[in-house]
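Example for tutorial group B:
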């Protein structure tokens, strides 16, 4: 892997779906709840307090790559990654507003950071699944019992294992932004979703499938900090902000 100093994993702020509302929306279109923008701004304030101020470099640095001169941006910018889901993009918007005056930010979106797809069960409670799709709900329950929740896939959706594989694909893209020829960035903020963040942590920290299944979802707008140790491995520094717990989620 390339040189990456800090990764901050942020779960989106509270959404309508977290409050048991917004079932009329497709999962990708669920917006933040009324308190969501305020929670996003708070996460941005925390990040602003811990992210280093970028170096002030007036002149551009240029490299010749395959005979073409390429401008390289100065070290110190912050890349703000986001899932393409509406609630994540809205959360990043609040974070970005807090960072824009003191930090040079670059926005990057990836569909690979989206939440687990629950297929035909999208937006449904367990009780609703059995009421509306009794056969599929029983089959999924059997798959969980037989093979474990990590590998069980809801009809038309994704298993935890599918999300984990997505994170490996995302890392291939992510690593390009650590290459010195392309303006190496040492600070990344990734705004994503509960299960997706757990899958990223499983991949980065070499955790077991059992760990991912048992690890609780992070609170809304929480921030978990990863660094790289001397051996090049990711190191979990824990939460720098615990976020906003919600009993109704």
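The residue assignment follows.
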């Amino acid at each position: 892997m390339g040189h990456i100093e800090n990764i901050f994993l942020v779960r989106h702020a509270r959404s309508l779906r977290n409050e048991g509302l917004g079932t009329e929306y497709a999962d990708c279109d669920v917006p933040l709840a009324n308190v969501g923008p305020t929670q996003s701004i708070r996460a941005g304030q925390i990040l602003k307090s811990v992210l280093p101020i970028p170096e002030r470099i007036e002149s551009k640095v240029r490299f010749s790559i395959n005979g073409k001169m390429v401008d390289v941006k100065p070290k110190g910018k912050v890349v703000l990654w986001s899932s393409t889901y509406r609630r994540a993009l809205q959360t990043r918007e609040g974070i970005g507003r807090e960072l824009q005056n003191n930090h040079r930010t670059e926005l990057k979106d990836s569909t690979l950071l989206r939440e687990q797809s629950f297929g035909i069960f999208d937006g449904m409670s367990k009780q609703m699944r059995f009421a509306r799709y009794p056969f599929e709900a029983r089959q999924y329950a059997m798959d969980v019992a037989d093979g474990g929740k990590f590998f069980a896939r809801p009809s038309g959706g994704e298993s935890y294992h599918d999300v984990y594989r997505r994170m490996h694909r995302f890392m291939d893209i992510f690593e390009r932004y650590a290459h010195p020829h392309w303006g190496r960035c040492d600070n990344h903020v990734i705004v994503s979703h509960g299960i997706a963040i757990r899958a990223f942590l499983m991949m980065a920290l070499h955790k077991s499938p059992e760990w991912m299944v048992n690890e609780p979802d992070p609170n809304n707008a929480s921030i978990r900090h990863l660094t790289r140790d001397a051996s090049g491995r990711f190191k979990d520094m824990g939460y720098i902000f615990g976020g906003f717990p919600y009993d109704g989620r």
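The first strand starts at residue 6 and ends at 11. Compare this with the pattern of hydrophobic and polar residues in the output above.
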